[in-house]
Amino acid sequence: MHIPEYSQIVSPLYLVTRKKNDFHWGPEQQQAFAQIKQEITHAVALDPVRTGPDVKNVLYSAAGNNGFSWSLWQKVPGETRGRPLGFWSRSYRGSEANYIPTEKEILAAYEGVQAASEVIGTEAQLLLVP
To answer: Could you tell me which residue ranges the Reverse transcriptase/retrotransposon-derived protein RNase H-like domain spans (predicted)?
Structure first.
């Protein structure tokens, strides 16, 4: 299942789960909770991994202000969009938030290649970064 921008949607919920913070459920948390419930009902189903000489593995990555995401798709001749194999995202850790945009994009691409290799092994990949 894939939920676009998951880490950004649920970030207000993570704030109330940290031990160092007092628990406070406010409007921001309620809005995030309502939005994630809505997103779950419209989530994209993932396909199984396909193999073969005509199968192309395509990795997309993107970095934003709060975190980054990447997705892995497979395309065969005749398909225009391809089929999703996986979607990942995470918030920046520590000093990663201070990286310049180019470094954030490189980090997203690196993490994407690492995650994709766990799904498709060492198969050749096409990496697309906006």
So the answer is: 25-120
